[in-house]
């Protein structure tokens, strides 16, 4: 990642439509990188900071996300992202650490842009303002057919309030637009597109093979302590670690 004009750390973002398994794969990759001895920050958006998790709670726990005006959705996401970038991502990457993030700026363009029809150039400019230039080194897009993803996601309704009350309330056509938006970004920005219908262990191995060259070309910070992995379900807010230099 280029931070303040210097190439530091390694920033990996996972993107994907509903039911793609990106949260599971983000956790698996973070754990494998930790096992390799690297200092890894597993995080998510919206979230990753106290403010971000509180905004996430506002948007998801009360089942209010589908009812929020899309511009309000975008502004809340961008507020969480700006805090995340400043408080967590910049210090971690400046110190040579690895960030594994479940969703980032691409989600806003896919959901609020392609899905809800907000102006993409405007969202691009707002993302640039929120991130202050902090962009992933690698974006992994887990792609699958819309109907398959929604069936997977709806199957988790009993255990995951976010799946029950979030974007799944939208129609199939909405999710088809989101998928197209993701694939257009991948084509334009050189993302790695992966078949999310693979078995989780197969997909995890493919992701690791993709990441090995990125790891080998960098002098990354060794771990002083293992960071907690991302939760598989969107429950209580994740508390960011506070130990060590460069951490917030």
Layout: helices, strands, pairs:
Elements: E1 2-3, E2 6-7, E3 10-15, H1 22-35, E4 40-44, H2 50-61, H3 70-94, E5 98-102, H4 105-115, H5 120-131, E6 138-143, H6 146-154, H7 161-165, H8 172-189, E7 192-195, H9 200-216
Parallel strand pairs: 3-5, 3-6, 4-5, 6-7
Antiparallel strand pairs: 1-2
Helix pairs in contact: 1-9, 2-3, 3-5, 4-5, 4-8
Q: Name the helix and strand elements from N-terminus to C-terminus, one letter apiece.
A: EEEHEHHEHHEHHHEH
Mean pLDDT, rounded to whole units? 85
- How many β-strands, per DSSP? 7
Helix content: 40-55%
Major sheet: order of its strands? 4-5-3-6-7
Examine the secondary-structure arrangement and name the CATH architecture.
3-Layer(aba) Sandwich
Number of domains: 1
CATH superfamily (homologous) name:
P-loop containing nucleotide triphosphate hydrolases
**Describe the biggest sheet?**
5 strands, parallel
**CATH fold field value:** Rossmann fold
Distance between the termini: 19 Å
Fraction of residues in β-strands: 5-15%
CATH class: Alpha Beta
Low-pLDDT runs of 5+ residues are: 158-165, 229-248
User: How many helix segments?
Assistant: 9
Shape: globular
State the secondary-structure class: alpha/beta
Question: What radius of gyration results from the CA coordinates?
Answer: 17 Å
């Amino acid at each position: 990642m280029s931070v303040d004009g210097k190439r530091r750390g390694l920033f990996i973002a996972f993107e994907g439509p509903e039911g793609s398994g990106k949260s599971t794969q983000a956790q698996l990759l973070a754990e494998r990188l930790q096992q390799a001895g690297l200092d890894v920050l597993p995080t998510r958006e919206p979230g990753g900071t106290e403010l971000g998790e509180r905004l996430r709670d506002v948007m998801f726990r009360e089942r209010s996300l589908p009812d929020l005006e899309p511009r309000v959705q975008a502004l809340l996401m961008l507020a969480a992202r700006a805090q995340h970038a400043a408080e967590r991502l910049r210090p971690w990457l400046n110190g040579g650490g690895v960030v594994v993030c479940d969703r980032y700026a691409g989600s806003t363009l896919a959901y609020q842009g392609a899905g809800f029809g907000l102006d993409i150039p405007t969202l691009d400019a707002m993302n640039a303002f929120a991130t202050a230039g902090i962009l992933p080194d690698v974006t992994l897009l887990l792609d699958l057919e819309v109907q398959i993803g929604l069936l997977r996601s709806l199957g988790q309704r009993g255990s995951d309030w976010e799946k029950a009350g979030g974007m799944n309330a939208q129609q199939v056509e909405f999710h088809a637009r989101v998928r197209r938006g993701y694939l257009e970004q991948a084509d334009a920005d050189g993302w790695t597109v992966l078949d999310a219908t693979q078995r989780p262990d197969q997909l995890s191995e493919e992701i690791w093979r993709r990441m090995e060259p990125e790891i080998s070309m960098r002098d990354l910070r060794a771990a002083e302590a293992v960071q907690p992995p991302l939760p598989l379900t969107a429950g209580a807010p994740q508390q960011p670690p506070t130990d060590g230099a460069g951490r917030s």
